[in-house]
Design goal:
745 residues, alpha+beta, Phosphorylase Kinase, domain 1, 4 domains, 6-stranded mixed β-sheet, 5-stranded antiparallel β-sheet, 17 helices
Amino acid sequence: MTSHSSALVAGLVCLSAVVVVVAMSSWLAAAGEGSIGGADCETSCGSVHIPFPFGMGDHCWLLPDFEIMCKDTGNGVLKPFMATALVEILNISLEQGEVKVLHPISSYCYDAASGMMVPSEWSWSLGAYTFSSTANKFTVVGCRALAYIGDTRGNNVAAMYQTGCVAMCFDGKMSLNPCSGMGCCQTAIPKGLKYYHVWFNHRLNMSGIDDDGGLGRCSFAVLMDSSNFTSSTSSSNNISSPEFINNNSSAFNSSRGGKAPVVLDWSIGFDDCKTAVRNPDYACRSINSSCSDATSGRGYTCKCNQGFHGNPYLPNGCQDIDECQQYPCHGVCTNTNGSFTCDCPTGTRGNASIGECQKDHFPPRAQVAAGILAGLLVALIAFLSTEVFRQKASKKRQGYFEQHGGRMLSRILETDGNNIAFTLYDRGDIVKATRRFHKANIVGEGAHGTVYKATLGTDTVAVKRCKQIDKSRTDEFVQELVVLCRVNHPNIVRLLGCCLHFEAPMLVYEFVPNGTLSDLLHSRPRRRVVTLPTRLRIAAETAEALKHLHTARHPTLHGDVKPQNILLGDGWVAKVSDFGCSTINDNVQVVPKGTLAYLDPQFLQDFQITEKTDVYSFGVVLIELLTGKNPQAKEWKNLTTTFQDRMGNGTLGDLLDADIVEEGSMGLLYAAAKLVSRCIAAPGKERPAMGEVAVELRQFSDEMPESPEARAALEVEDGRYSYTATEGETTGFSNLPPLSTELAR
């Protein structure tokens, strides 16, 4: 982002803060006059309750974003709408700090008249609201649908957000319950999202879908309340039975007239509770209320204290609950401010809350003796219960060990232990090393599990908490562990051991300290100058690691090659990671295993993972190394196509990263570009083997070796180190022949 853009954004933020302060100050003045939320304010529209700080009419709402319009939608039916967005409100929750509204479903439909696909895409920017990351999921419905959701405004690539999912179906059938990829897919969104745009990938469309049944050739995508999905699709469209249905994606769109419910989180102002409580415009007006920091962004919400109910945003809005009217009491119930007591009358004993009080026949001494005896009995029961619990826990952990193939693995290690450097760790060691899997120890999350930084003895390691494995493939999982622990290559993250006493296996790897290749190329605001020799060396090391996996005695397919899975160790040496938790020979996938931007297009046709699938993904990584562009960013979502087009018309120089463009490096850049074209060729059988790719890249790296100064420069922040072209050098291609001419040689 330029300094001008930064100043503009900062100004808008300040202006928003001023608007909020002015609005809340006006509300405070009105509250002093006794008119805010008064009898003249309507509290409902149709069947929807409208509580303050929301309201209809002057002095009835706290912030402009909370103004509600009650509209007659026909035949005298009143429905509430947001005044700022004109979307229908379904429900407002003060307790949860949520508003549920209806918003349009984006579509991508085949128009038979024109023979073209016609998109209808939705964008929405929020004010005092954020899209709930816990209640909503991005949902895509269709037989050949690839849709994205993201916030890609501005020039700050690091601040951009983008994700998506693929919905495919076969023989014209889809399953919407559950939504698992067969004609329907869902994915989560990040916390604090205030803007999004929906768009479709035009490579996948419905033009080839048979529509003889009149079911429509449309794909649909929408951010929606995930708890509402099953009920809305089943009850409105009669598709809850059978499990699989014919392609009826249009029915999903028509259930609410082309709209779907989405949950918005709302909050007051920009301050947290600690600051807001000292301000004169503090919104928690009831003396029996308390403040809670907003969970999805800046600001706060108010709640009535326990034992009170009502509206915490109004003076005296939280009223005492008469618990004696709600809870059973078989004695004397006394309501107190915020609580109550339930006691047996004098001369009786017992627990009046759960049973009738009995006359007390025991003298005080008998009561003391009975109390001591009862105490001893309770202590004995507690001790025995603890022992039983420990025995059950130990048996359960041993069950996990055997379920995950622990006995088989132990026998293999005993038989061939001298040739395998592998450790079976104790459950307690793993729990202690990860500080009980504390979230502060999390260093990464992938498709197959969560990675924690841990300390085992004096060694720093990475503990990967796998997701559940298929119980029917336990033997294969154990054999793969044995194969992986025998993998000894300087450019592959080493598997040190495992712990099988958990519900899901724990794998222990060597710890790699310098982050990922993605961090090195794209991290902001700290940006490093990565020279061409460094990039060629990292590419060669990565290719040699993949070659080693492909050509081992037990060949291994990675399936998700991308910069996030290429770690950088001491000396910035590349180390390939993110395999080991899933069945390596599981070549047939129902939904894509890899990341969309790096996924082989041929996989979307036959769903087969091969060695050439890894070669294609590595080719995209090479493009990223040469151009410095992130293929997951919206403006570069077709980076491979752009790369091939630029090669064809001789303008690739404009796409390459200026940090690596020098007149002396042109030959290597041309050769690397030709290697990229072979790696991403279609069909896959035209691509070279990974061994051939590794040999060529090592030759490139040897031809332009990396200097010690280049590696040292990676440690220096931008601003303290920069590259300036000397006289006679060039940083572009303006005086060089077109790429097509060079390739023709």
